[in-house]
Amino acid sequence: MYHRSVLLSESIEGLAIQPEGIYVDVTFGGGGHSREILKKLTTGKLFALDQDAEAIENRIDDPHLTMIHSNFRHIKNFLMLYNALPVNGILADLGISSFQIDSGERGFSTRFEGELDMRMDKRQKLHAGQVVNEYPEERLYEIFKTYGEVDHPGKAAAMIVRARKVHPVKTTGELVSLLKANAKRGKEHKYMAQIFQALRIEVNQELDALKELLTQSIGMLDTGGRLVVLSYHSLEDKLVKNFFRSGNWSGEIEKDFYGNALVPLQVITRKPITAKEAEIAENPRARSVRLRIAQKI
Ligand SMILES: C[S@@+](CC[C@H](N)C(=O)[O-])C[C@H]1O[C@@H](n2cnc3c(N)ncnc32)[C@H](O)[C@@H]1O
Fold first, then answer.
1. Taking CB atoms and a 6 Å cutoff, what residues make up the pocket around ligand 1?
2. Residue 237 pLDDT > 90, yes or no?
3. Could you give the count of Cα atoms lying within 13 Å of 218 in the half-sphere of its Cβ?
4. Domains of the chain, earliest start first
5. Could you report the per-residue pLDDT of 50-70, keeping only the tens digit for each?
6. Å from CA of 257 to ligand 1 middle
7. Confidence at residue 2, expressed as pLDDT on a 0 to 100 scale
C-alpha cells in the first residue's frame, strides 16, 4: 500500500464538509484523505497539492479534483490563479508518506541504504548530503538540537566534521555507522531517527513552510471555514497549537481596547485528537499524531 491514512474519519469529520464547498488537501500523498473528501462532494471542488512528483502520479481521476505539483507555501497564489478563494476547508497531514520512507534511495530512512538526499521535491537544490558535508559545525549543532531534540548535539556535529575531513559522508548507512555509537545502548534507532528528522526538517524547510501555510490560511478561509492539521512531532504541533489559539507563534492572545480577544480562529479541539490503540497497532505511524481543528471566525 502506498500510504495508510492516519485518523481518516476524524480529520474528514473535522472539515465539516459542505457538498458544494471548495476544499484543499495540501498534502495529497497517497490520496487517502482526498478520496474521502471527494466522496462527500456534489458540486464542490477539491484542490490537492504535493511537492513530491511521485505523489502527484497517484492522481485520482475525478472531475471535481485539480492536482497541483507545488510546495504548500505557494498555496494562495495557486488558488488565486484558479479563482478558488475563499475556501471552506484546508487539510494538512504533515511530514512524509510511507512511500517516501520506504523508498531507500530517497535517503529518508535509517533502515535502508541510500544517498543522503531527503528532498521531498527533487526540483529543489539543497539535499541532505550538502547539509552533512558543507554546513559549519555550529549550524549542524543547532539543527540537531532544535529540529531533532538530540541528546549531546555537539558530539554528533563534531564527529561529522571530523569524519568529512577524511572522506565525505555520502550515504544513510555511512551516517548511521558514524553516529550510532553516540546513542545509549538499546536506543540506537530512536537516536538515529532524531538525527534523520533534524536533517529532513532542514532540507525541506518544513517549519517555515508550515508557518507560511498557517499564516496564509486565514486569508483563504471563508467565515466558518475549517482548518485541520495532523502533525507528527512536537515542533510542528507547538506551532499549530499556538497559531490556532492566538493567530501568532507565541500563543499569547492580543486584546483590543475593550478587552476583546483579537483572534482569527476558534479552536474546535481544546486538546488534540490522538490515535486509538487499535489504529496504532495497525499503523505505527499513528503513534505520534496530533490532530487539531479550528474554524475561521
Ligand atoms: C503524510 S503524507 C500525506 C498522506 C495523505 N494524507 C494520504 O492520506 O495519503 C504527507 C505528504 O505531504 C507532502 N508534503 C509535505 N510537506 C509539503 C509541503 N511543504 N508542500 C507540499 N507537499 C508537502 C509529502 O510529499 C507527502 O506526500
1. 3, 5, 27, 29-33, 49-52, 55, 71-72, 93, 95-97, 120, 209
2. yes
3. 16
4. 8-98+206-296 (3.40.50.150), 107-204 (1.10.150.170)
5. 999 999 998 999 999 999 999
6. 41
7. 76
